[in-house]
Design brief:
The complex is a heterodimer of chains A (440) and B (238). Chain A has helices at residues 2-20, 26-44, 46-64, 75-123, 128-143, 185-252, 258-288, 301-311, 313-316, 336-353, 391-403, and strands at 148-150, 161-167, 172-179, 297-299, 321-325, 332-334, 360-367, 370-376, 407-412, 418-425. Chain A has 440 residues and is α+β, with helices and mostly antiparallel strands. Among the domains of chain A are: 2-104, no CATH class; 219-288; 297-425, Histidine kinase-like ATPase, C-terminal domain (Heat Shock Protein 90). In chain A, helix 2 (26-44) packs parallel to helix 4. The longest helix of chain A has 68 residues, at 185-252. Chain B is an alpha/beta fold. Chain B folds into two domains: 5-122, 3-Layer(aba) Sandwich (Rossmann fold); 130-237, Winged helix-like DNA-binding domain superfamily/Winged helix DNA-binding domain (Arc Repressor Mutant, subunit A), CATH 1.10.10.10. In chain B, helix 6 crosses helix 7 (175-183) and helix 6 crosses helix 8 (191-205). The two termini of chain B are 37 Å apart. The chains are: A alpha+beta (440), B alpha/beta (238). At the A-B interface, helix 6, helix 7, strand 4, helix 8 and helix 10 of A face helix 1, helix 5, helix 6, helix 8 and strand 11 of B.
């Protein structure tokens, strides 16, 4: 087409020259052919420009330079003909350069517009599929290519394709696969820009999803903990009423015989037990629902044992209890409230399954990155026949031990009777408090 | 204790009824409120000597109630809370509660707490110089501690921790409060300091450090020392 256009403008120049021959002199007609050559160069490139220049000089010589209708020329005319050809080629060359610059500026602008459009479309994308469609469409319209996108960042390019990684700040999110060809540096820039914009868009979508999931999980947890605390309040309130009622009844019965009063006391004890069961059940469901954050800090095993014994003072009521804590036992890194709950439940278990006159022994040992808190009784030992139905109390003890990454061991004490041991991992060492002079 | 006014702020009617009976029997006048708003009005108009506050009120968080009340009143407040809600207890204590009782509680336990709080209120006004628990006497101006009449050597940190504990007179001091008062701001999370120094104090002052009778730890909440203010003429006689 450019070549045909060059020929057409050349023919046009001849026709126009014949028409203007009467008005202007033959020498001015050479400018007409020069113009034709420049126009051909500027519009259709270097080749057509050269064609129009050469043909123009020959036609000018043949049709208009005397002797007309002959290629013969005098020597001075020959020089001017060559000059004319030289000027035509030179101007044509400049015009072609300008044309190419304008062309590349236009393509650059097109790509910039395409990039802007793609990034604008990405900002509205909410799925990976949309990102993929926008990138493919943008490249197809700008470079007339049929690219593909793989979200697998390690995908290898198939035969005939080259792979451009879609890099995002956190990691590569996939690859852009384009039919392989020799891309100019600007085209390559464009493809890389689209690839990294796609990576960013995918990463944004990924984090939006992550944030959404986290929000859902948080709301779920908040809801669960609200339900559990409402349940806990609602279940305990009537128990509180019953207990206070029974105990004030007990006080009213001051003058009555012991047979009646022992019954009110029994009711009171059972209400307390019921309340403990409710507490254990709620705590167990909280732990089993997962996502419980332990409130771990430094606790003294001695204080936890004492706390548990004080909570069960009335139940243990005068029983002989020995406590063995070696001086070398360091502080224990754990959720003190939960571990105390384990000890309370172990005490409950031991107290209910052994005769009230038998002694209990609580002990603490520290080993390599481990602390063992144990309770030995002198009863008949754990009832193996009840396997699998050890009760809410012990299940909670196990759940608490496991939430700390530890275990609850149950078995026989070397002194006869049952032994239950809470084993807690200890990975860290308590920091030393600041040195202090031993004065005062 | 006759003539004293107790205000019960609790939304469960059966508990209110039982508590009213118990307190009436003990010779108190009883006012009741079933919401925080009502409780605030009651405590303003009747000036109770003692408030029993449930933390699970329908209209206002019990902690908010405490904060508001403490702006104009120092009436002793005993909060009722559920077991396992240690965080809630700490917040209530920091908001100005004097003590807490775990639901369900026994009547003797409730009355014991109530008497302790009222006794502490009697002696309120001036900070005591001498405190006593068991056979231990703490002489704050003299910076000395006697056990069975003999001086016990304490380090300065041990002594300032003990002073914080006895001045609370049986009230629970929260862990972060003790840590900040004794070790200074910025040590609020160094719970191991407290564990180590409580062990020192028990070893020096308790008959059986493993089963302390006076220097008690409320796991997850704080520490309390069952100490009372004491006039000690015999100390001055020395």
């Amino acid at each position: 087409m450019p070549w045909f256009n060059a020929l057409a403008i050349f023919v046009g120049a001849i026709v126009l020259s014949f028409l203007m021959e009467r008005i202007v002199g033959a020498s001015q007609l050479s400018l007409l052919f020069l113009t034709a050559a420049v126009v051909a160069s500027a519009n259709w490139g270097r080749g057509p420009g050269i064609l129009a220049a050469v043909l123009g000089v020959l036609a000018y010589d043949y049709f208009f330079l005397p002797p007309r209708f002959s290629f013969r020329v005098s020597e001075p005319e020959l020089v001017s003909l060559f000059l004319l050809l030289g000027i035509a080629l030179f101007i044509g060359h400049l015009a072609d350069g300008l044309r190419q610059q304008a062309e590349s500026a236009r393509r650059g602008q097109e790509r910039a517009q395409a990039t802007a459009r793609i990034s604008r479309d990405f900002s509205g994308a909410i799925s990976m599929e949309q990102v993929s469609a926008i990138a493919v469409d943008g490249i197809r319209r700008t470079l007339a290519l049929e690219p593909r996108i793989s979200f697998d960042s390690l995908a290898t390019a198939p035969q005939g394709y080259s792979a451009i990684p879609m890099r995002a700040p956190r990691k590569t999110r996939g690859v852009l696969l384009v039919p392989a060809r020799n891309f100019g540096s600007e085209e390559m820039d464009f493809l890389e820009t689209v690839a990294s914009l796609s990576g960013l868009a995918i990463e944004r979508i990924h984090f939006v999803e992550v944030a959404g999931d986290a929000l859902l999980r948080m709301q779920g947890e908040r809801m669960r903990s609200r339900i559990l605390s409402t349940l806990s309040h609602d279940l305990r309130t009537p128990l509180t009423g019953i207990l206070a009622g029974v105990e004030s009844l007990d006080a009213d019965l001051g003058g009555m015989e012991d047979r009646v009063r022992s019954k009110t006391r029994e009711v009171a004890a059972e209400v307390r037990r019921m309340s403990d069961l409710v507490g254990n059940l709620l705590e167990l469901s909280r732990l089993q629902a997962g996502g419980v954050k332990l409130r771990q800090d430094w606790n003294s095993a001695e204080e936890l044992i004492d706390g548990a014994l004080r909570q069960r003072e009335s139940l243990l009521n005068g029983r002989e209890i020995t406590i063995q804590v070696s001086d070398r036992v360091p502080l224990v890194w754990c959720d003190g409230v939960l571990v105390e709950r384990v000890l309370v439940n172990l005490l409950d278990n031991a107290a209910r399954h052994t005769p009230p006159e038998t002694p209990l022994r609580m002990w603490v040992e520290s080993g390599e990155k481990i602390v063992r808190i144990g309770l030995d009784d002198r009863g008949v030992g754990f009832d193996e026949s009840k396997n699998g139905s050890e009760g809410i109390g012990l299940s909670l003890c196990r759940a608490i031990a496991e939430s700390h990454g530890g275990t609850l061991e149950t078995g026989c004490s070397p002194h006869g009777g049952a032994r239950a041991v809470l084993v807690l991992p200890q990975d860290r060492k308590p920091p030393e408090p600041p040195e202090e002079e031993a004065s005062e | 204790m006759s003539g004293r006014i107790v205000l019960v702020v609790e939304d469960d009617h059966s508990i209110v009824r039982v508590l009213r009976d118990v307190f009436l029997q003990e010779g108190f006048q009883v006012r009741t409120a079933s919401s925080a708003r009502e409780g605030m009005v009651e405590s303003g108009s009747h000036r109770p000597d003692f408030i029993v506050l449930d933390l699970g009120l329908p209209d206002l968080d019990g902690k908010e109630f405490l904060r508001e009340l403490r702006q104009w009143s120092d009436t002793p407040v005993l909060v009722l809370s559920a077991r396992g809600a240690e965080e809630e207890k700490v917040l209530a204590l920091d908001a100005g509660a004097d003590d807490f009782l775990v639901k369900p509680f026994g009547v003797p336990e409730l009355l014991a707490r109530l008497r302790a709080l009222l006794r502490r209120r009697e002696g309120r006004g001036s900070r005591g110089a001498f405190y006593r628990f068991g056979n231990v006497v703490v002489d704050i101006p003299g910076r000395t501690v006697h056990r069975n009449g003999e001086i016990v050597r304490l380090t300065s940190v041990e002594f300032s921790l003990l002073v914080q504990l006895v001045r609370a007179e049986g009230k629970v001091a929260t862990q972060s409060h003790l840590l900040q008062e004794v070790w200074g701001p910025g040590h609020g999370d160094d719970t191991h300091y407290l564990r180590i120094y409580m062990a020192h104090l028990r070893k020096k002052l308790e008959d059986d450090p493993a089963r302390p009778a006076y220097l008690l730890t409320e796991t997850g909440v704080g520490c309390r020392c069952l100490a009372e203010k004491a006039d000690l003429p015999h100390l001055e006689e020395r």
